UniProtKB/TrEMBL annotation:
It comes from the Eukaryota. The keyword Kinase applies. This is Kinase-like protein. Residues 112-333 form the Protein kinase domain. Keywords: Kinase, Transferase. InterPro entries: Kinase-like_dom_sf (IPR011009), Prot_kinase_dom (IPR000719), Ser_Thr_protein_kinase (IPR050167). The keyword Kinase applies. It holds the Pfam family Pkinase.
Length: 336
């Protein structure tokens, strides 16, 4: 799965930045990003988004026949691209549109499927795997329970038994649920409460710990596919641990370009590198991006900008390896 060709990276300069300047930048930019969600009605009334090669499908609002549908595709310098980056609005509302580059056409809406009302077609019968797990007397104060959905997740969790980098599966409940130790914070939550005085230090530490966790998964032949800040737990008193080992689909903003089609075989170790760039973005701006285009438009400031841009390179072969990525973070020096 790992490409034998290593990307050529510039020599690593020592990067320095102070917490005050960095915090002022991210607070200001985060507020701008929040305002983007309210600037155009399309995003405020958003119902669902699907990624397409070169663009996206959007369902928004409501009508007698369901949400309105907009298909958007186009490269930089086009109306479509500006819409996806939240620099422009759709030309008209309360109708279904196809916006290809600068060309706008009325179209028939594509049916909207409310996933909350559907049964996931990929769900599997995990009873055989569950039967082999030890029975745990669940204490809600100490344990977190989760319904089993995919056999692969259970196999991956068992393969990672004993690892400090991965959430540990303890066994099953009386109802056949998966049982884990309860960790009260996720990285998503910790990023929200990051302090100005130690902001860069904490982000650097979190990302180095996340890299160690991903390196362990890759050593086991596991590609996570959905590394986001909410899928990384923060025990606070010990290093971060990775959870949600379904290793099936990916959240839209951490999904790299090569997976915009439906060929899931293209997932590789480089896919997780792209996702680590998205995790870095979440740690910096303590929020989830509106979409991948907005995430790439608003790169984190130095000392993390070059790292983010390297991780989110369009071509997977141009992204750094985990050892290269770790060296980039270790080179960061924080000014007092």
């Amino acid at each position: 799965m790992e490409s034998s060709k290593q990307p050529e990276l510039d020599p690593l300069p020592v990067s320095s930045w102070d917490n005050k300047s960095f915090s002022e930048y991210v607070h200001r930019t985060r507020e701008e990003l929040v305002q983007l969600r309210m600037k155009f009605s399309l995003w405020g009334a958003l119902r669902d988004v699907a990624i397409l090669p070169g663009g996206m499908e959007v369902w928004y609002g409501d009508s007698a026949n369901g949400p309105y549908y907009v298909k958007i595709s186009g490269g930089p310098g086009t109306l479509a691209f500006d819409i996806m980056c939240c620099r422009a609005d759709i030309p008209r509302y309360n109708c279904s549109l196809a916006i290809s580059g600068d060309v706008v056409q009325d179209i028939e809406p594509r049916p909207f499927i409310d996933l909350d009302d559907c049964v996931d077609p990929d769900l599997e019968d995990c009873s055989e795997e569950i039967a082999k797990l030890p029975l745990i007397d669940v204490d809600p104060e100490k344990h977190f329970i989760k319904n089993p959905t995919y056999r692969q997740e259970i196999r991956n969790l068992l393969q990672c038994q004993g690892s400090r980098f991965v959430v540990q599966l303890l066994g099953k409940s009386m109802a056949g649920e998966l049982v884990f130790d309860r960790v009260k914070s996720t990285l998503e939550h910790s990023a929200i409460f990051n302090s100005n005085n130690g902001r860069i230090q904490n982000i650097k530490r979190w990302m180095l710990e996340a890299i160690d966790g991903v390196a362990y998964l890759h050593s086991q032949g596991i590609v996570h596919r959905d590394l986001t800040a909410k899928n990384i737990l923060d025990p606070v008193s010990s290093p971060l641990v990775i959870c949600d080992l379904q290793c099936l689909n990916s959240t839209f903003f951490c999904r790299p370009f090569e997976h915009d089609g439906s060929d899931l075989r293209k997932f590789s170790y480089a896919s997780d590198i792209f996702a680590l760039g998205a995790v870095l973005w979440q740690c910096c701006f303590y929020n989830a991006p509106l979409n991948r285009y907005v995430m790439l438009e608003y790169a984190p400031p130095p000392p993390f900008r070059r790292i983010f841009q390297a991780c989110t390179a369009v071509c997977p072969e141009e992204r750094p390896t985990l050892p290269q990525l770790k060296a980039m973070y270790e080179a960061i020096v924080i000014e007092n």
